[in-house]
């Protein structure tokens, strides 16, 4: 069999580019098995199948190519775009994640000295900007899964490494989402180790000799703060249980519910008092005061008519999204583009029933059918309090996809 030269593609290779261009994953899968010499070959523009699949934002094709050993560093592209540059331009955050997990250096520059994240910002792919900027390589976390110095056991059990990684790279900084993530990832039983690890990660980031990422250090401090707030709720729940021994345990993780209710509880003018106070405490406790992110957050919180602290934090860590941002957010956990909404008033959106259930204790005060006008609705629906659980269940069963 004659080996191919760089510029001469065989028929299978040519068709592979064609299938990727057409997003024909099934056709692509069939052809890829017929390749004789690996997946790192280029078309007339110097692009590999991996780069094309990234450009198309085709997660499945990207995954197949990576599984087949595609080299993320193999680059013949004239403008020096890495697969991450193409992924960032495609707008698909999952493809960005796959390439980051494969070990790409996110600071790699293209021929016009732009990083992938800057390219994503340029075309308005904010989620990709956030995905790339919040990324932490697995290997920086491995240290904490090993026994260090006087420790008897590591701060993070090695088996939890992947879960901890998922937790740390999450881009949604809403405290409710952080708590729900800890719960769904099964990390609640290790809050103490998690808190210590995040403190150490913050410290280590700020004390690096070069390439200090202040924003990530601040994020680690913030995540550690939320974890310690959850631990406080856990203590309170334990104390309450001791007081009322005759009451049956309401559920293992009732402290998560306590924390979430605290976060979502609005005062009379719709502000989130608890979050406002605790985030201000969180800033006050940030140990590195001589850095840009600290000064920026402090000056914004001290401004006349400041934005909510959570917004200040989000903007500080993830950057401003600009005025044209009309993205909708889950009223409970702040996730982007939730696809469910309250079937009764159609005014608020949620990721799922759980998010709706958690927010209902606040939302029931303002929820009403869209036919009644705003002033009438508040007086009628809030007067019916407390709404019995049967009504909430009925409400939840009616949740619709918008
Ligand atoms: Zn949600
Ligand atoms: Zn409603």
UniProtKB/TrEMBL annotation:
User: Which parts are the ANK repeats?
Assistant: 45-77, 79-111
Q: Where in the cell is it found?
A: Cell projection, Cilium
Describe the location of the MYND-type domain by residue ranges. Answer: 330-367
State the SMART domains in the record.
ANK (SM00248)
Q: Which UniProt keywords apply?
A: ANK repeat, Cell projection, Cilium, Metal-binding, Repeat, Zinc, Zinc-finger
Task: Determine if Zinc is one of this entry's keywords.
Answer: yes
- List the SUPFAM superfamilies hit by this protein, alphabetically: Ankyrin repeat, HIT/MYND zinc finger-like
Q: Which residues form the signal peptide?
A: none
In terms of InterPro entries, this protein maps to: Ankyrin-MYND_dom_contain_2 (IPR052452), Ankyrin_rpt (IPR002110), Ankyrin_rpt-contain_sf (IPR036770), Znf_MYND (IPR002893)
**Does the keyword Zinc feature in the UniProt annotation?**
yes
PROSITE patterns with a match to the protein in the record = ANK_REP_REGION, ANK_REPEAT, ZF_MYND_1, ZF_MYND_2
Q: Which PANTHER family match?
A: ANKYRIN REPEAT AND MYND DOMAIN-CONTAINING PROTEIN 2
**Name of the featured protein:** Ankyrin repeat and MYND domain-containing protein 2
